[in-house]
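Predict structure. Chain length: 115.
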Amino acid sequence: MRRAGLSAVLGIAIVSLTLPSFADKFKTDTTLKDSQPYGVKDKDHKHQAYDLSFDAQGKTYNCRTDSGHSMKATDFVVGSPIHVEIDGNKAKLKTPANKKIECEIVRAEMLPATR
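Prediction complete.
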C-alpha cells in the first residue's frame, strides 16, 4: 500500500514538471516585425547572424540566427507573413516562398494588455 502511494505521488510530480514544457510548444502564423544584423563576421563566424522579432500568443519574441548558417536578409522582409514553430527556446520560421531559418529565442516580452 505504501509503495502504491509513493508511486502515485512520484507520477503526479513527473507530470507537473513536464506540463510547463508542453506549453512552450506551438505553431502559428504571424508577421515579421523586425530584422537586425547581429555581431560581425570573422574566421569563427562565417555568416552574418540576425535578430528577428515577431509577436505570437501574447508575447513579442526575439530570436537570433546561427552565425554558422547563412540567411538572406531579403528572404525575410519586415512586415511580411511568416509561419512560426516554437519549441522551448528554439524557433523555426518559414516564409510563404518556403524560405526557412532556425533561430534561438533570446528574449520574450509580454505584450501590453488591450482594453
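Summary: The longest helix spans residues 2-23.
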